[in-house]
Amino acid sequence: MKQHFLLLLVLAFLSCEKKRSINISSENLKKEFHVKIDTFKISPKGDLREVALFRNNFYTIFESQRKNTSQSFIKMMAFNQKGKFIEDVFVPSEIQDMPHYQINIENDSLYVKESQFEENNFVLGEYVADLLKVKKKNFRIYQDSIYNIYKDCNGEFGGTIYFETRKSSKVYETYSSCPTVVNKIGETYFITNAEDFGNILEISNPSELDPSKLDFERRQGSKFSNGYKILLETNYETRIFTSFVSNNKLLTIYCDKKSTYIGEIVNGKLKPLYDFGFRFYANFQQQIQNKQILSCYLIKSKSYAIMIIKENEIKFHVIK
Hints:
This protein is mainly beta. It is 11% helix and 52% strand.
């Protein structure tokens, strides 16, 4: 009887210690995140649509509604990392008429690319702040010593993720609804599809995907679905915005009806590690080594912000 009683005491003690250990671990992770918020007083007119860090300055695109028409007016401007205005960039009529576009940085050049169907490209002038039309170009979303990784996104028609080997130029592909960002831990790649009903894919060996060739003329997603594991799938209650690596762990920024969080994936579900304390929506814009740039909309204040993630440090530059 005594032995049974002692055994129960030991089990109860171990259970309490385990819970205590989990709570302490979660608290330590929360303390690891450093969030700073400041204000950029640049008085833009319109909604923040695109932002990229280029030559140590932020280049942004704002959209405002035109009078007596359903079309928007696109304005591009640059300011430094302290929020001081640098210059306006002349935006040609071809970009004004684009329904979907994005800023890409590659080989020390800034491009504005039409992001669906026609896919025209414009490059920022070297010495003059205007955008010049150039030949069609496809941009990597990730690169390491082994692969160049490309995406192709066709809205409701789905998307494709391509892995091109840098040595042999062999290409492998699989379905990915609309690839947003690629992260790598060890030799494993993680593809985040940040959208309504989004997901995160794990690809351990890209050479086990289906052989392919780079084809950006398709109008639908890949027909292949081999070589990956689905780590996370979200529903209408949860929306993911990006994933990033901190302390060798894959973390995800997401929101629900109450707030926006940083979380980790545990058994196919998001476990919150940090609560920002306010709701915001975010769009991934740019990945620079261990840094990410996102555009944000802060719901309560109805304002836009530039969000910078660098491992466990997060900054918001609220635009007013």
